[in-house]
Design a protein that fits this description.
Elements: H1 2-39, H2 49-69, E1 73-78, E2 84-90, E3 93-101, E4 107-113, E5 116-124, E6 130-136, E7 139-147, E8 153-159, E9 162-170, E10 176-182, E11 185-193, E12 199-205, E13 208-216, E14 222-228, E15 231-239, E16 245-250, E17 258-262, H3 275-281, E18 300-303, E19 314-317, H4 329-336, H5 349-364, E20 389-390, H6 398-413, E21 433-438, E22 454-459, H7 461-468, H8 473-481, E23 487-488, E24 499-501, E25 507-512, H9 514-533, E26 542-550, E27 557-564, E28 575-577, E29 600-601, E30 608-612, H10 614-620, E31 627-628, E32 631-632, H11 652-660, H12 662-665, E33 674-682, E34 694-704, H13 717-729, H14 740-754, E35 755-757
Helix pairs in contact: 1-5, 4-5, 6-8
Amino acid sequence: VCSMKKNKMSKEQGCVLKAWEVTVRKTTQQAKKRANNIFGTVSVAPQTDDEATATEENDDETSNNRSSIGELYNAERVLPNGDYYTGQWYDSFPHGHGKYLWTDGCMYIGEWYNGKTMGKGKFGWPSGATYEGEFKSGYMDGIGTYTGPSGDTYRGQWVMNLKHGHGIKSYANGDVYDGEWRRGLQEAQGKYRWRDESYYIGEWKNGMICGKGTFIWTDGCRYDGFWDDGFPSGNGTFKWDDGSFYVGHWSQDPEEMNGTYYPSGNEENLEWDPKDVFNNLSEYKICSGERVPVLPSQKKLSVWNSSKRIEKPRRISVDGRVSVGLDRAFEKMNMWGSESGEGAADIDSTTRRDLDAEIMRLEAEGFIQSLKPSPVPMRLPRAGKKQGETISKGHRNYELMLNLQLGIRHAIGKQAPVVSLDLKHSAFDPKEKVWTRFPPEGTKYTPPHQSTEFKWKDYCVFRSLRKLFKVDPADYMLSICGDDALRELSSPGKSGSFFYLTNDDRYMIKTMKKSETKVLLRMLAAYYNHVRAFENTLVIRFYGLHCVKLTGTIQKKVRFVIMGNLFCSEYSVHRRFDLKGSSLGRTTDKPESEINSNTILKDLDLNFIFRLQKAWYQEFIREASVAGELIPSGACTPIGEFEDESAPRLSRADVDQLLSDTTRWASIRLGGNMPARAERTMRRNNCEFQLVGEPTGEYYEVVMIFGIIDILQDYDISKKLEHAYKSIQYDPTSISAVDPRLYSRRFRDFIFKVFTEDD
């Protein structure tokens, strides 16, 4: 029986090795054919198996001698997965000038640096699309020209594969845009000319006409004024070529539209309707352009480390990072076989499984050297349960929750005047509020309910804020007042306030002290102007301010503010930090075993600096704060137990996908779903309160979510006394409670050490 088993195994192994040899031979032949077609004929003399083996050993020996000396030399090789490279080579990587052909037909010709596409080069796609220009770390980065397969052409500046800076986009349909770009979309000043020669010149935002600008038609008519989402919005003037003009306030809502017509003596425009302008403009679409199917930074290099022993080919991304970590069997098979596309090796599933098993066996016995992961994957905190305790009947705050939901349903659902974003100073007066009585039996305006009688106060200006933040009233009411109950966080903060989360995690409700309410009302006008001027502000968003006054013997007032939940994201959040820039008491008091993904860590728990791409950093230096998802660069898998194994995890490929997918790009903004690199830091042993440690060179790909919260604390007498008392015992600069000017300066200095520009 043992003999039969051994014979059977040896036959199976023989079949596996033969199948492997056939696979490599097929992909090699296919790559040579493509190389001959694209790069020109490569003369290869016929060889016997013995001659081929001897030649390979000689090439390997020569290669090893050259690489050990560190000599730059010309190389021409067909790589194990079928890719083809010809050009300068140094220390197992393309270096200098060279051509690389992938098995799917993609091709790069240009400058390399240690395996990275760096400098000037040309990248071609099988579809016929090309990019010619500057590269940086595998990305289209610098000045370059992209020509799509349908004829779209962009000439201008790039950052991380995205149009960023000044550029000219010529569309296949004849439209042309000449102006500024930001993260792949038109932004700031630009001119768009349609093929009928009508054009718009002015301000843009997120790829849409928005701000102040002028639209000129080919018949001589023109509109000068403000725009929003591609249509006139706000003050503006429409002029005819005969000198007549119409001045007024423009809006797609007919009830908000008003203005005055001034004729030039010509009576033919008297029956003109401003709606005609909107109907006409709806025909002028902004072209979206073509999407790049595969980005250069997503292409992998198969680098064969030549030697006399069998080695596993190392697969690296074009930016030079080695793919390490726990590859799936299918991915290992793809390293040896041809990649997807025309000419892929025809291997059935049984053979594929056998090959996978054989490769893993060879690795285990040492014939194939497995690449060790570097850096070591980070052990992430275990996933915490969903935050908060559901407020159901019998909960101490059940009736308060009902009162809140009744009040919001009434405030959002009632008929109200048309909301305008152009507010007068009187709109921010604290007296601009409405009190409504809610008896259990109901009234003409309020429904009957099962709670005790209460009064509800609503501040009117927040209706304009919700419109400014593009909050849909129905969705807002459904999130807070739907069938799903609110969740109360397990413990109140130091301020004594309670926090509640909506079931969809979009909104957070906080109970407020009277002093905090006064601070918010006092700063409301400045806050409104700030968030209107800076759409991507990091400052927390306030959606509503309300008060519930219980009648009867208690006569208790409870004030609420409704805010956006900073951590509402499609990604699972692994670490949360509350940063102030101070060191005294700024560390968590939990042991390591009790820390999970919901634990709020503090300044001295932070052992990273976050490197942002230049485009993000330039926008970031206005303001700042932090948290993120941690996985090492190179797609190492994190070690640790997760309750939700289906939660999205981030790799370098995920970052590229996030940047390439325009639908997902809309979710990226400053402080929200923002890709970055985190570099681990280490504090010196003798510096217990060193806020920012020394960089170690160990990097991780992260998605960051950060913002500025807790802005309603006044530096009142209690904070001044706290500062005076603690200053006797500790360094005054290490205390959280300090003069606002010092706090601001210290916070900014700290943040700009934690967030830096990625070189």
